[in-house]
User: Which sequence fits this backbone?
């Protein structure tokens, strides 16, 4: 399929593109809604929002199948939705209800849907990378046909677990795709101060497999690159490290004054809004009209509104259940 | 029944399970043709091949994390850490990932893995290769912690650990690897959370773990000559802890010495002592609870100092007598 | 400086002395030569006099304590002078030259004393505390064998044993090798005295045959439970009265052949007493009552329960409506019930429903006794034997057949006066049985 003179390599079909567009709005509205409820004090704890990064989550997950697995990060709501999670159960989890993905015991940083192949968000920076390697090891040992897609951020690429895991994946030639979402800041630390290579993707060279960088705000490019990496992994050609350059619009977490960056920089990135770019591409390619795009947007918004109702109706966990599930 | 060593018992438990269950595999540093730092996996790669006896780079964080991930997705891995001191490097994966995953995910995940690792002093390996850090992991809900003291216990407990759907930290003791006991050839399982009374007695209870079980038994022999009857209870698993057996024994004897090799400060002995003090055994205590553990010092290299830093038989004898006002 | 009062060595063999009594209290002025306390040695009892003058400052021991020779047992000195709270330990005999130094060391624990006394706590193990509590022993009275006098379980057990016996009894027990804990004391609060020990020791030397043991079960157990329940829950009062049975004997003599012919059963005194009792009960409904829960139930029927001894127990079948039956009918009823009872053929109906019971032991050499009420009934009549006695009748001594009746009643339901009125009327009825015909 050609989109604006760019060939879309994976054979996803027109309907899937429409769904992806709606999914990106769902992610954005979900994050905005969560932000709103945190501000109101109706959701407690902390949360890390991925507004502005929708293309990397949706684009990467668009090219994998239900049996494929992902590991996610503390900024994981987008990955969850992209891997097919039910926003109702996600919102219920944030409201701490038993109807949430983790029965109200995990919260924002620990949403997982193991059955759907989402091995979980992770509160430890870099903590999920060795887990993804383990998941890929299972596929390899059991000769199962799934690929593990491992999301992490630029900050995690400085953790020892990142380097150990990449090395293991390489020596064992595992079916895994590492996706580094470089959103330019590890909390307040600018990536240019914390990493002394031009691109994090270069780090793959140390471990003997390909590293590629991609415009993480361009979902088409994201899909093409990830597709190739996934196909390589699936056909036994080992891992790839993809660095998706993107930007988080909001602060690190709920209480971030963003003193470490300028409003001008933020505006520059907001102009590269991945959803608007995708809308433009799809309208121009005649996939849908502007009118249709607007109604998809409002459908997404409505789904998120409904998820709040669902969440609030869910029962609070009972104290009797406090000690359940510590051990199997 | 035939006698085999502790180290052979551990190997046999793994081999028998691996023959039965393809999901079980072992990964660790130098566990291939080298046979592991202490020779426990010797011969295994020849039988099971390099896929299932997976020789890894020196990456404790990576391999423990890979074990957690593979357990989460359907395998039943055994990680061998060369020295339990290295759990410091694997700690995030064990404590923040393995231990918590099931709870964090609302019960929708299981992490059936065993992390086997030799602990303890007595080999002259000094400060970074001689520690007993079991209290660290015992503190973390979600982990189980096993400390076998005999070859028989090692085989049965390892079988139970491999069958368990939770992450289990399995402490082997370096100086016990060569000790022998009667071990059945067939597979058998010793439930986690069942203490073993290694010697019955009436005057004083010693609760001892790992190598200290043997020192306690030696002390009991000596004390018997003086007419003091000592009961030696080996909890065998620290988590879950068989509180009932300990409480019953202490209620019977009214006196207790808790002894482990780990540093006394913050050690598991404090937990056991407190548990006793909180239990029904309190009203039967006829002397203050005694705790013995290593001195608060890194394990020294010099063999004499090394010995002096951890409890020895005369220390246990002395401590028992103290509870009887005879010291 | 306060002077020590110590346990004197009064003979070459004396190692300990037992404190029999203090003759001075703390704070009393003391003169030289005044008796301070009395002790018992292995040979004698003796009053010990003070070697010092001043104020008696401190006593460390209590009566019956065994105190080693030379142990400091108190202090005499100037008023308000400070002395240790605990007796100083005995100086080691082998190092007399260092006595001064060790005394110095002793001051260190003494310095800690005020803290301990401030809380007034006894150092004791949990086990010692439990045993002390179970045996109602004051821990402060127990001397501890542990470090810093910590009291252990064995110390308390020893204290229980030693507190149980007088020093003399203890000494005799020790001499005779008798275990004091086996002896029931006859003194105050069960204290074992000399006679208890000698008696026990003598008994021990008699040849003994092992007793046969029978398990409490079946009817025996039922009777046991019922008796215990009755005596534990019912405040019993027993009244007795002596009855002149002359006329009852006449009545029996004349009616016996008639009733025997009619029923085949021989009329006994029991039936006549039932008849009289049932009749009188009609006039005293309170005595024919039952106490059920918090209600007194005044029964309209008069059903007389008869205590019948059977093998291994006692059962109480009931003669219903005894007040409405003639002597022939009563004779037949009571005889058949008795037979059935012994054969174990009573129906449950026949064993229940009595409103008042009679227990007759007149066939034995029993004059009177205190019967136990058969709940929920509120009274029971005990019948003794008829025995000829000299009785004053109209100013002259006559021999009359006399019988004692014992009425036990439940004082919760009945007071003394109405019970006495009932017994008085019953006596009158039995002494004038023809009144029953009126």
Assistant:
């Amino acid at each position: 399929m050609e989109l604006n003179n760019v060939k879309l390599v994976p054979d996803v079909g027109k309907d899937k593109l429409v769904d992806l567009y709606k999914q990106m709005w769902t992610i954005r509205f979900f994050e905005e809604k969560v932000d709103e409820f945190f501000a109101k004090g109706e959701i407690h704890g902390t949360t890390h929002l991925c507004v502005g990064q929708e293309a990397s989550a949706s684009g990467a997950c668009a090219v994998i199948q239900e049996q494929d697995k992902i590991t996610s990060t503390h900024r994981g709501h987008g990955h969850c939705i992209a891997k097919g999670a039910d926003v109702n159960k996600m919102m219920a989890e944030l409201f701490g209800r038993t109807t949430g993905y983790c029965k109200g015991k995990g919260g924002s940083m620990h949403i997982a849907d193991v059955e759907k192949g989402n091995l979980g968000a992770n509160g430890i920076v870099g903590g999920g990378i060795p887990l993804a390697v383990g998941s890929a090891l299972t596929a390899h040992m059991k000769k199962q046909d799934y690929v593990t897609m491992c999301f992490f951020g630029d900050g995690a690429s400085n953790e020892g677990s990142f380097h150990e895991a990449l090395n293991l994946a390489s020596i064992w030639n595992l079916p895994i795709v590492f996706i580094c979402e470089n959103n330019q800041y590890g909390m307040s630390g600018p990536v240019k101060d914390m990493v002394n290579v031009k691109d994090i993707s270069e780090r793959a060279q140390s471990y003997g497999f390909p590293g590629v960088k991609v415009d993480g705000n361009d979902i088409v490019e994201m899909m093409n690159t990830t597709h190739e990496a996934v196909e390589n992994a699936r056909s036994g050609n080992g891992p790839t490290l993809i660095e998706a350059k993107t930007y988080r619009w909001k602060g690190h977490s709920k209480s971030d004054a963003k003193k470490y960056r300028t409003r001008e920089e933020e505006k520059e990135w907001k102009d590269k809004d991945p959803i608007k770019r995708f809308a433009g591409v799809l309208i121009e390619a005649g996939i849908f009209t502007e009118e249709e795009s607007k109604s998809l947007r409002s459908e997404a918004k409505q789904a998120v509104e409904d998820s709040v109702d669902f969440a609030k109706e869910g029962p609070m966990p009972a104290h009797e259940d406090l000690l359940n599930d510590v051990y199997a | 029944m035939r006698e085999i060593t502790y180290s052979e018992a551990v190997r046999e438990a793994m081999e028998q399970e691996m023959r039965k269950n393809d999901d079980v595999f072992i990964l660790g540093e130098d566990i291939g043709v080298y046979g592991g730092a202490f020779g426990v996996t010797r011969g295994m790669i020849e039988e099971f091949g390099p896929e299932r006896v997976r020789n890894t780079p020196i990456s404790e964080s990576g391999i423990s994390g890979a074990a957690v991930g593979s357990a989460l997705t359907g395998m039943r891995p055994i990680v061998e850490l060369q020295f339990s001191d290295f759990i410091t490097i694997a700690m995030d994966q064990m404590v923040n990932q393995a231990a918590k995953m099931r709870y964090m995910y609302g019960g929708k995940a299981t992490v059936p893995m065993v992390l086997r690792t030799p602990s303890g002093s007595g080999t002259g390996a000094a400060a970074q290769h001689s520690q007993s850090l079991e209290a660290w992991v015992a503190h973390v809900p979600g982990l189980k912690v096993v400390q076998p003291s005999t070859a028989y216990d090692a085989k049965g407990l390892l079988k139970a650990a491999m069958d368990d759907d939770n992450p289990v930290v399995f402490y082997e003791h370096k100086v016990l690897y060569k000790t022998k006991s009667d071990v059945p050839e067939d597979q058998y399982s010793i439930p986690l959370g069942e203490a073993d009374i290694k010697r019955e007695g009436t005057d004083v209870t010693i609760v001892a773990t790992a190598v200290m079980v043997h020192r306690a038994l030696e002390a009991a022999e000596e004390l018997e000559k003086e007419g003091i009857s000592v009961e030696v209870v080996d909890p065998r698993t620290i988590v879950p802890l068989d509180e009932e057996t300990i409480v019953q024994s202490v209620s019977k004897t009214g006196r207790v010495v808790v002894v482990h090799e780990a540093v006394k400060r913050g050690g598991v002995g404090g937990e056991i002592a407190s548990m006793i003090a909180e239990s029904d055994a309190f009203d039967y205590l006829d002397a203050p609870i005694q705790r013995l553990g290593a001195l608060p010092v890194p394990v020294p290299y010099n063999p004499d100092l090394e010995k002096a830093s951890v409890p020895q038989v005369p220390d246990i004898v002395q401590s028992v007598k103290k509870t009887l006002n005879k010291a | 400086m306060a002077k020590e009062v110590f346990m004197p060595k009064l003979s070459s063999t004396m190692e300990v002395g037992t404190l029999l009594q203090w003759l001075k209290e703390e704070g009393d002025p003391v003169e030289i030569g005044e008796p301070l306390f009395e002790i018992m040695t292995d040979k004698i009892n003796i009053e010990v006099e003070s070697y010092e003058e001043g104020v008696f400052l401190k006593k460390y021991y209590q009566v019956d304590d065994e105190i080693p020779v030379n142990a400091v047992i108190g202090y005499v000195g100037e008023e308000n002078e400070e002395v240790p709270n605990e007796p100083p330990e005995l100086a080691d005999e082998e190092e007399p030259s260092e006595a001064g130094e060790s005394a110095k060391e002793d001051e260190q624990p003494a310095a800690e004393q005020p803290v301990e006394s401030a809380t007034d706590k006894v150092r004791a193990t949990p086990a010692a505390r439990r045993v002390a509590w179970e045996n109602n022993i004051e821990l402060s009275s127990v001397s501890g064998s542990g470090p810093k006098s910590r009291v252990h379980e064995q110390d308390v057990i020893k204290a229980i044993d030693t507190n149980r016996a007088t020093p003399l009894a203890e000494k005799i027990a020790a001499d005779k090798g008798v275990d004091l804990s086996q002896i029931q004391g006859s003194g105050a609060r069960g204290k074992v005295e000399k006679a208890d020990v000698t008696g026990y020791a003598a008994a021990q030397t008699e040849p003994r045959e092992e007793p046969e043991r029978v398990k409490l079960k079946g009817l025996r157990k039922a009777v046991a439970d019922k008796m215990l329940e009755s005596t534990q829950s019912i405040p019993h009062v027993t009244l007795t009265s002596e009855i002149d049975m002359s006329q009852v004997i006449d009545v029996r003599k004349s009616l016996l052949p008639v009733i025997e012919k009619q029923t085949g059963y021989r009329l006994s005194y029991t039936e006549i007493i039932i008849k009289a009792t049932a009749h009188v009960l009609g006039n005293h409904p309170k005595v024919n009552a039952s106490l059920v829960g918090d209600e007194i139930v005044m029964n309209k029927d008069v059903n007389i329960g008869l205590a019948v001894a059977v093998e291994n127990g006692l059962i109480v079948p009931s003669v219903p409506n005894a007040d409405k039956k003639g002597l022939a009918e009563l004779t037949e009823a009571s005889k058949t019930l008795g037979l059935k009872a012994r054969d174990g053929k009573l129906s449950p109906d026949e064993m229940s429903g009595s409103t008042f019971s009679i227990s007759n032991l007149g066939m034995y050499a029993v004059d009177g006794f205190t019967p136990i009420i058969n709940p929920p009934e509120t009274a029971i009549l005990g019948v003794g034997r008829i025995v000829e006695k000299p009785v004053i009748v109209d100013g002259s001594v006559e021999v009359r057949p006399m019988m004692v009746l014992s009425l036990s009643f439940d004082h919760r339901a009945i007071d003394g006066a109405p019970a006495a009125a009932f017994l008085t009327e019953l006596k009158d009825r039995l002494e004038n049985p023809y009144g029953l015909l009126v």
Observations:
- DSSP finds eleven helices and 14 strands in chain B.
- The CA atoms of residues 225 and 255 of chain B lie 19 Å apart.
- The domain at 196-323 of chain B is CATH 3.40.50.920 (Rossmann fold).
